[in-house]
Amino acid sequence: MHETLSHAGGVKSRAELHAETYRGFRDKYSVASQLVIEAISYAWSVRKTVKRGIRKCIVRFDKRLFSLRLSFRGTKRGNPVLSLD
């Protein structure tokens, strides 16, 4: 987020900030793209109050950041098997 804030001064919208920083952050950090987008969005929303210091950073998790696949299978003998992939 600190890196994103250094770019926030020269742009006029969140879309410009995203266009300027997204590709570089995706190449530099191996995290989900949604986390990069959330960091850019959060940096844009706090850009005017950052002079007082960053006390907390809120990261919202949503269903795009993780998935759980549940499978019901059986053994050769017919016993049920529950699998989490």
Our count of helices gives 3
Strand arrangement, major sheet = 1-2
Distance between the termini: 32 Å
- How do the SSEs run, as a string of H and E? HHHEE
Approximately how much helix is present in the residues? 40-55%
The gross shape turns out to be elongated
Share of residues in strands = 5-15%
Which structural class best describes the helix and strand composition? alpha+beta
Largest sheet: 2 strands, antiparallel
**Low-pLDDT sequence parts:** none
Q: Average pLDDT across residues?
A: 77
Could you give the count of β-strands? 2
Report the radius of gyration as a whole number of Å.
Answer: 20 Å
What would you note in describing this structure?
With 85 residues, the protein is α+β, with helices and mostly antiparallel strands. It has three helices and two strands; from the N terminus they run H-H-H-E-E. It has helices at residues 2-8, 14-28, 33-46; strands at residues 70-74, 80-84. Strands 1-2 form a two-stranded antiparallel ribbon. A hairpin with a 5-residue loop joins strand 1 (70-74) and strand 2 (80-84). Helix 1 packs across helix 3 (33-46) and helix 2 packs across helix 3 (33-46). The two termini are 32 Å apart.
